[in-house]
Amino acid sequence: MKTTNIYTGSLSTIVMKLLNEHDSMYGYQIVKRVIEITHGELQITEGALYPCLHKLEAAGFVEVSYAMIGRRTRKYYKLTEKGTRETVKKLAELERYIQNMRALIHPKFRQAE
Amino acid sequence: MKTTNIYTGSLSTIVMKLLNEHDSMYGYQIVKRVIEITHGELQITEGALYPCLHKLEAAGFVEVSYAMIGRRTRKYYKLTEKGTRETVKKLAELERYIQNMRALIHPKFRQAE
DNA sequence: AGTAATGCATAAAATATTTATGTATATTTG
DNA sequence: CAAATATACATAAATATTTTATGCATTACT
């Protein structure tokens, strides 16, 4: 039984929060930044990241611009206003997740009934 | 774009921790207990729970016993020793997840480089 | 008697991620 | 300078997980 990945379902939250902080980022930069912040504990795969970014774009949560670096095209993603509102929701959801998991895991921390 | 479920990937951790606390539980009880603890915010579906329990059993993490309640059979799950060791790992993984997500979400909380 | 709750379970569809692969440019290092 | 590594995008197949839908049967409530 391959242990399930607990990070499943968190990718878009992570990406959107990073975009919210950095104003504008490109894919490779996101991958590196996550490794940096989590000290290598979380390594986003490109196969997950790019489809995620494309979905965010399709949903109107990010907008895209291009930059030429030498002869190479770099694709920048930036949160739209709609995307920023969605990010707020995602972060609130994450906070609730953490609170709920705390309640489940540390019964002492359970809120009053 | 249907928002992704952040609880994805956490089900077996939740189940194993509850089993660890309660010594022995049956499926329906797990569903109800999670609703109770999270004040209805997390509702485990049976379609997810039962396959999860069966996988835990196949992996040797839980063992099963039956009880007759009236004319109805109730199936109890109990952590094995191996399952308890796995639960410890899962909980450590969850703590790391929360720390990493905190580092990603609240840059102020980031650990020293 | 009919509805809701208890209790198990599976299957189809939807969703998400990992792994593998592909293409191309740029930089570092022996 | 050639080879290895890093940068940078992307997609497809396989895998994993969950939601939604369905089914069966018993028990409690109204």
UniProtKB/TrEMBL annotation, chains A, B:
<dbReference type="InterPro" id="IPR052509">
    <property type="entry name" value="Metal_resp_DNA-bind_regulator"/>
</dbReference>
<dbReference type="InterPro" id="IPR005149">
    <property type="entry name" value="Tscrpt_reg_PadR_N"/>
</dbReference>
<dbReference type="InterPro" id="IPR036390">
    <property type="entry name" value="WH_DNA-bd_sf"/>
</dbReference>
<dbReference type="InterPro" id="IPR036388">
    <property type="entry name" value="WH-like_DNA-bd_sf"/>
</dbReference>
<protein>
    <submittedName>
        <fullName>PadR family transcriptional regulator</fullName>
    </submittedName>
</protein>
<feature type="domain" description="Transcription regulator PadR N-terminal">
    <location>
        <begin position="15"/>
        <end position="86"/>
    </location>
</feature>
<dbReference type="Pfam" id="PF03551">
    <property type="entry name" value="PadR"/>
</dbReference>
